[in-house]
Each structure stands twice: as C-alpha cells, then as structure tokens.
Automatic annotation (TrEMBL):
Bilayer-crossing regions: 42-63, 75-96, 137-158, 179-202, 214-236, 256-276, 288-313, 325-342, 348-370
Residues covered by region (Disordered): 407-459
Native source organism of the sequence: Brachybacterium aquaticum
Protein name in the entry: Na+/H+-dicarboxylate symporter
Gene Ontology cellular component list: plasma membrane
Protein localization: Cell membrane
Record key words, sorted: Cell membrane, Membrane, Transmembrane, Transmembrane helix, Transport
Pfam hit, one: SDF
Length: 459
C-alpha cells in the first residue's frame, strides 16, 4: 500500500479539504452535513450487536491461568493505573476545556440538554442499569442494560461450555462478531468522504475555531500522556529501586514500533522480547501480564476516551453531573477490559460513548479526523504502561533480574513451554483490543505469540 493510498492519509486529506471548503464556502457548506450523518449512522447501526457479540465472546471464553496471586497483583495494578488515567483526563479536560472552542449548543439536538439536565435519583440510575426487556433496550440504544445482559449471558454461556463441552453458541457469537467487524471495515472505506462532509459542515457553521479545538484536544491528550509517563517511571523506580535513567533506552525499540504501527497487538512480540531480554522480567510474569495487558492495560485509551467524553459535552455546552462523570470514567475503563472490549476502532467507541451518555455527535467527525495522532499517543502509553506493570509484578514476585536490567548480563529468548502462556491469559475467542488503534492503522490482528523461556549469558 503506497503512502497516498493509506486510509489514514485519505482521512486526513478529507479532513483538511473539508475544513478548507467550510472556511471558504461558509454556511452553505452545512448542506453537506446530511452525507456526514449517513456515515455516522452506518457506524452506529452496528454498535449494539457488535458490543453484545464482543461482550458475550469475551466473558463466554474466559479460561486458563487467570486466577491466584499473580492475577490479583496484575489486575490490581492495571485497574489502579486505569483509574488514575481516567481521573487525570477529567482534571485536564475540566481545566483546559478543549471542546469549549466549538459552540454546538445551537447545532446539537436540544433534547440532549434537556435529558442531561433531567434530575434523577441514584435509585433511578441504578434501575436504569437493568432493563425488563433487552430487545427494547437494544432498539432504544440503551447500552448499559445491553452490556449488563451480555455479561450475564456470557457468564452463563461460560459455565454451559465448561460443563457440556458444547461450544456451538460461543462459536456463533464469535462468527457474528467477525461479520460485524467486516461491516465496520466496509463502512470505513467511505470514511474520507464522511469526514470531509462532517468537517465542511462543522467548519462552515462554527468557523475556524474547529481547527483550534482539534489542536486543543490533541494537546490535552499529549499532556495527559506525558504526565502519566512520568508517573509510571516514578512509581516503578520507587517500588523496584532500579535506575530510571536506563529505562528509555530499554523501551526505545518497542516505542518505535508502537508509534509507527499504532497497534498494541502488532507491537506485542517486541514488547515481550524487550521485557525478558532488556528489562529482566521472568518469562512466566512477562507472558501472563503482557498478554493480559493487551485487553486490560490500555491506559492511553482510558485517558483519551474520558477526554472524548468531556470534549463532546463541552462542545455542546453541557454540564455533566457527578454521576455522569463517574459513569464516563467507568465506561472508559470497562471499554478496555478483556470482557468489555469493543473492537472496530475509534469511531465505534466515540459514538458508543456519545450515545450512551447522551452527548452531541456533531464533533465526532473532528475527533475521527485527528485520531491517527491520538492513536500514536494511546499506543505509546499502552505498551510502555504494560511493561511497567510487568516490572512491578515481577519485582513483587521476586522474579526481576536486576543484572539483566543493568546490562551486566543479557537474557536471550527461545521458543519453549512456559507456566503462563499468552493463550491462557487471553480469552480464547476474544480479539485483541483495538482500543489503541485508529480505524486507519495497520491490521491489529495478533501475531503468533510463542511462550518464551529465558537463558542468560554473560554480556
């Protein structure tokens, strides 16, 4: 694929052309909005069944070495860092207000403001998590009850498969997920046209502030990534006592692969090799924690998705209550857990968040247009954050080789069985998370991931 035919380049070109047309033509460019809305609706059309299938496949196929002290420590660090990422995103977005430059209060559906301002008790909120009719929830696009139903269905299916050995329903759900992902890929073929129309209409209606808001959104995300990177280095240095100045050189190779592919799955073999050969993490810990990190350790995605929630709310001049902010954080974290992964790229996730929380969709096209850049930031933090977790867990388990980290001894990897293989850590039917990869990035299909053993030789 040549550079000029790459989907990311085409989407970027569509965004630039759309913004230029909007600035030149002005308000008449708003007539193009209907074509952008068609693109949005095509993506929305697959959200409910895709989320259901993904959750059912994830929970229904959980198996293997996912229990015990190792799992508890790994999941504890991942959830802790994810929560910090969500909190930091809220603080940064509330302080810097990247979406405030776009005033969509007169463009967005007036019903959104009314629904956001509608007072509800905590009892009403809790009851809203469960629907008496899942088909009614599906038709209304109420995602929380759909997810609750899918999790319960997946857990019941997991027990059924374990006791009967019959995987027919699980395989049907897996095949349905694959077909729906194929639908998303087909829809993304017209993404450059859809983004062109959305940006032309938005710029023609709102003006040049669209460009400034896009830059503010990127800047807020980049600042969050920088702060979290420093936090990760400080935490791992204090907990392990290792020299933090050696860490950048150790992580250089995997960082280069991450930012050029914007895919954690493609970067996984490099991350695994780096953890064992350069960092000194034991193969047992590396295989388990890094594999689990592909579906639970997306700290960059959690940060980005919470900023998206705040950005969309600010663009519609909506004030989110405490309950809505907590819900946004929870959704951002759950979207990156192995049981509630939404494959299909950023457009699906952004529209899922907007639909679930009743946020305006008008600015989603702008976020899609710059997602190649945010994808780089997300993947950078995702893969390096996973390595930090592997170091923390390996240190706690007494399996971190300090001589390897210091360069006094070099570890080498070779294919061999291991106590905790990646296939044990990941659900057998689940796809690797696409939460860090924009829809235009190279394929995020997982490469073969051998369990690795280590032997050491003098440097």
């Amino acid at each position: 694929m040549t550079f000029w035919k790459h989907p990311a380049v085409l989407i970027a070109a569509g965004a630039i052309a759309g913004a230029a047309v909007g600035l030149i033509v002005g308000e008449p460019a708003g007539e193009l909005k209907v074509f952008g809305d068609v693109f949005i609706r095509l993506v929305q059309m697959a959200i409910v069944p895709l989320v259901m299938a993904s959750v059912v496949v994830g929970t229904g196929s959980l198996a293997g070495a996912g229990t015990g002290r190792l799992a508890a420590r790994t999941v504890g660090w991942m959830l802790g860092f994810s929560l910090i990422s969500a909190l930091l995103a809220w603080v940064l977005a509330a302080t810097l207000r990247p979406g405030a430059g776009i005033d969509l209060s007169g463009v967005a559906d007036p019903g959104l403001d009314a629904s956001a301002a509608e007072a509800t008790t905590w009892q009403d909120t809790l009851l809203g998590f469960v629907s008496t009719n899942v088909f009614e929830a599906m038709s209304a696009g109420s995602m929380i009850p759909v997810i609750v139903f899918s999790v319960l269905f997946g857990l019941a299916l997991n027990r059924y498969v374990a006791t009967s050995g019959n995987r027919l329903v699980l395989e049907l759900a897996t095949q349905l997920q694959s077909v729906l992902l194929g639908m998303i890929r087909l829809v993304m073929l017209i993404a450059p046209i859809g983004v062109f129309c959305l940006l032309a209409a938005l710029t023609g209606t709102v003006g040049a502030s669209v460009v400034l808001s896009g830059l503010a959104y990127l800047g807020t995300t980049a600042l969050g990534v920088a702060i979290l990177t420093v936090l990760f280095v400080v935490v791992v240095s204090l907990r392990t006592g290792l020299n933090p100045l050696r860490l950048p050189a150790h992580l250089a190779e995997q960082t280069a692969v991450a930012v050029t592919t914007t895919s954690s799955a493609v970067t996984f073999p490099t991350v695994l090799r780096t953890a064992i050969e350069r960092i000194g993490v034991s193969p047992r810990i590396a295989n388990f924690t890094l594999s689990l990190g592909m579906t639970m350790g997306s700290y960059g995605a959690v940060l980005n998705y919470m900023i998206v929630v705040m950005f969309l709310a600010q663009s519609g001049d909506m004030q989110l209550g405490v309950g809505q902010i907590v819900l946004g954080m929870a959704l951002a974290i759950l979207l990156n857990m192995g049981t509630i992964t939404v494959p299909g790229g950023f457009p699906v996730v952004a529209m899922f968040l907007a639909t679930t929380m009743g946020l305006p969709l008008e600015a989603v096209g702008l976020l899609i247009a710059v997602d190649w850049f945010t994808g780089i930031l997300r993947t950078f933090l995702n893969v390096n954050g996973d390595t930090v977790v592997a170091m923390l867990v390996s240190h706690a388990e007494g399996e971190l080789d300090r001589e390897v980290y210091a360069g006094a001894r070099r570890a080498s990897t070779e294919d061999a069985p291991s106590d905790a293989s990646p296939s044990d850590a990941l659900p057998s039917g689940a796809l690797p998370s696409a939460s860090d990869a924009p829809p235009s990035s190279p394929s995020a299909a997982a490469e073969p991931r051998p369990a690795l053993a280590t032997s050491t030789t003098s440097a």
